[in-house]
Amino acid sequence: MARxxxxxxLLIIMELYPPVHTVQMTxxxxxxxxxxxxxxxxxxxxxxxxxxxxxPTTWNSYALAAVRTANFLSKMITYNNNNVSTxxxxxxxxxxxxxVHLKSVIFGSAIALEPDPSLPYPLMCPYAxxxxxxxxxVSVHAKDLSVSYNYTDPQTEWYHTLRFQNxxxxxxxxxxxxxxxxxxxxxxxxxxQPVAFLEDGRWTNPYYDxxxxxxxxxxxxxxxxxxxxxxxxxxxxxxxxxxxxxTNIDVNQCDPDLGSSGGALDVFRGTHSCQxxxxxxxxxGKGFTRGAYFCECAPGYxxxxxxxSNKYYNGSEIEEYITRNNLTYITSYNRYRxxxxxxxxxxxxxxxxxxxxxxxxxxxxxxxxxxxxIVVIFIVSVVIFHLRESKIIKSGSPIFLLLMCAGSAxxxxxLFVMFPDADDRLCMVMPWPYHLGFVLLYGSLLLxxxxxxxxxxxxxxxxxxxxxxxLIRRFVPIMAITVAYLVAWSSANRxxxxxxxxxxxxxxxxCTENWWSYSAYGIExxxxxxxxxxxxxxxxxxxxxxESKHITWSxxxxxxxxxFILIIVQFVAETSGPDxxxxxxxxxxxVVVTITMVLILAPxxxxxxxKLEVRRRDSLPTISGMMTQHIKRPCRSVGVQTTPTxxxxxxxxxxxxxxxxxxxxxxxxxEAPSSNKYETTMTxxxxxxx
Length: 690
Hints:
Blueprint: H1 2-16, H2 27-38, H3 60-79, H4 89-101, E1 106-113, E2 126-132, E3 138-144, H5 157-163, E4 171-177, E5 180-181, E6 184-185, E7 189-195, E8 202-203, E9 207-208, E10 216-227, E11 234-245, E12 278-282, E13 293-297, E14 301-302, E15 312-314, H6 315-324, E16 339-340, H7 360-386, H8 391-395, H9 398-412, H10 414-417, H11 424-429, H12 431-458, H13 468-492, E17 497-501, E18 507-511, H14 515-537, H15 548-571, H16 578-610
Antiparallel strand pairs: 1-2, 1-11, 2-3, 4-7, 5-6, 8-10, 9-10, 10-11, 12-13, 13-15, 14-16, 17-18
Helix pairs in contact: 7-9, 7-16, 9-12, 9-16, 12-13, 12-14, 14-15, 15-16
């Protein structure tokens, strides 16, 4: 297969040329080469190396053992007149076994001597290494490595590279030593020796030590020397090494972690084969091999086999699949991938939906009913405008009746804003139609009632004139304050949406309720309570003179039913989904708008339709059912601002005083001559038309 042939060709190239001439591998090629070497027979030596640029500084603390060993050997050689033969095999084996006995990641240690006639063998390399038996007992073994392979071969990177290195810069130091003779010290004598430092040695690339430890390892070599007769030049005498076993060092192929300190083998980071719908998770403990990871589903995806006990893909299986099929990467779209979760799911185990699906039929029915309500309000507005000169309609102030219609239509527009799924822009707009409409509707009602209250409470003392224009001027600041509050609300409220869950765990987005909305509802409740107070002050006025009964009913209706519905929305509907919330907001609109409009306008339209006549003043009942005094003498009341013909009465005597119809008042109204036996009275609402 093409991929295998490439690896075989790479192996041949590495055997023909020394490592210094080998082209650098990619991290992925290195891992494939590791897998290839482990499954094929090797020849003695260290030619199977990975030409990688990696950072071995993590192991520098272990490399100091080799540096100290090399400096000790240099001292012994120079102290004995550069005679290598003075180094006995017992000393050499003791040094290397001592390095391996350290409890560290050091696997082996060697002292490779440069060939010299004074040595007992042409090549001599005492080597100690760790070995673990079947019972996991670790023991140290030592042998002469030169029996297994020729370490002076150019392919032996840990020796060959230092053998021909330039050491003219190496430090040569002179120590003063006083030996002891008997109970006294001899005069100090100078001992000159070369001293190697950590940077004078060299880390090898990872290689497979065939014939040595038969494992993948990396070696640090520190040279030791003799001195020329004039002590000016160093003579290369060999190297002392320590081996770091890579077998038990994990290869992490997953992507680098942000802020991690990293390690020597981080060169393999990012070489995993997890697909875009999965994420790589490192599995430590597998050693120096590829595939030490698994691919679990990324957030927003789920494992296709929902019944599998392990819901992830094994990295070693993926790597074997790529090698077996001569692939560089996985080309199959459906292999080793996860399925996407339903929209709105952050995590999932199946394709079950996570978002609440709104019922289009419910939304459509509610919207159609809302449109019908708005159309009816428009028709009512046209009728009011058409009958604006009628005494019954005129007594109710047509301008305020039209404002009430406009407010009702505005409140209904809230349901149009709620029709789509909530988002930041819609939630920013949603408070405007409801709260503006509320102030228009109930502000008009309260101003009309306030006028009646002022006239009946203060009319005994002074002359009161409150035409519609005056009330409109008072109404403008109220609307300005409302608009300013809504502007501040829209400007300050940035997080306008929130995600909620139903009892079934389905998510939906709704507009955020915060102290801005709660404050608005609180102000509106206070506004309605003030309306209740106004209606109470005029409860004794003749029934045909005011609308307080119907206004009171509409206000009580708004306070009780609307508050009840809003409580249900807050504590029940939010866990049932937006469909129920949509229905409840529609019902709230009908309570606040439709019922109020019916209570206020139905009696007027009925009176117009039935063409009811204005009754005598002495037969008018009060709201509480009490009768006014029967006035028999012919007189004309000056307690109204409008004549029976609807024209302004601007010629009232300066001595005239406003006398409201109060409960069994003992103050008799000021009488004026009249041609009629009984005075003609108009409802107090006729005052509003002036």
